[in-house]
Amino acid sequence: MDSSALIALAEKAAHHAYSPYSNFKVGAALISSSGSVYTGCNVENASYGLAICAERNAIFHAIAAEGAGMKIHSLAVIALGHEFPPCGACRQVIAEFAQSSTHIHFLQDGKVVSLTSEALLPGAFALSPSP
């Protein structure tokens, strides 16, 4: 699946967003390393802190389906009527489940931008495995 098709799935997911407070409808779609496709949308809450971004929603959906070993092959995010990359919290979660070849796609100036996870969040926080 190419980035255009993945962005189209993310856009479709964005239409399901629950965003009465920000009015930002965001969708994400990912392909896992197993080849399965998962989508997510942002879901807000009156307490704000309990909201979930579309990217994390899609990633958590993939983990729930495939287990903790799930790895992201590629991920697309789109906000209806807006253009921006994943937020910092999402970048960190993406880094946790990304591979070195993982590409993240989003729109900027009307064009698709594709960055690796490392380029999206250089120096991501990681815990060293226990001895």
What does this structure look like?
By secondary structure, this protein is α+β, with helices and mostly antiparallel strands. It has a single domain (about 5-120), classed as Cytidine Deaminase, domain 2. Helix content is about 30%, strand content about 30%. The protein contains four helices and five strands, in the order H-E-E-H-E-H-E-E-H. The protein has helices at about 5-15, 55-65, 90-95, 115-120; strands spanning about 25-30, 35-40, 70-80, 100-110, 110-115. Strands 2-1-3-4-5 form a five-stranded mixed beta sheet. Strand 1 and strand 2 (about 35-40) form a beta hairpin. About 40% of the residues are buried. The mean pLDDT is about 95.
Quick structural gist:
By secondary structure, this protein is an alpha+beta fold. The chain contains four helices and five strands; from the N terminus they run αββαβαββα.
What is the secondary structure topology, with strand pairs?
Elements: H1 3-14, E1 26-32, E2 37-41, H2 54-66, E3 72-79, H3 88-97, E4 98-108, E5 111-116, H4 117-120
Parallel strand pairs: 3-4
Antiparallel strand pairs: 1-2, 1-3, 4-5
Tell me the count of domains.
1
Strand order of the largest sheet: 2-1-3-4-5
Strand content: 25-35%
In CATH, the topology is named: Cytidine Deaminase, domain 2
CATH arch. level architecture: 3-Layer(aba) Sandwich
Instruction: Look at the helices and sheets and give the structural class.
Output: alpha+beta
Tell me the name of the CATH class.
Alpha Beta
Helix content: 25-40%
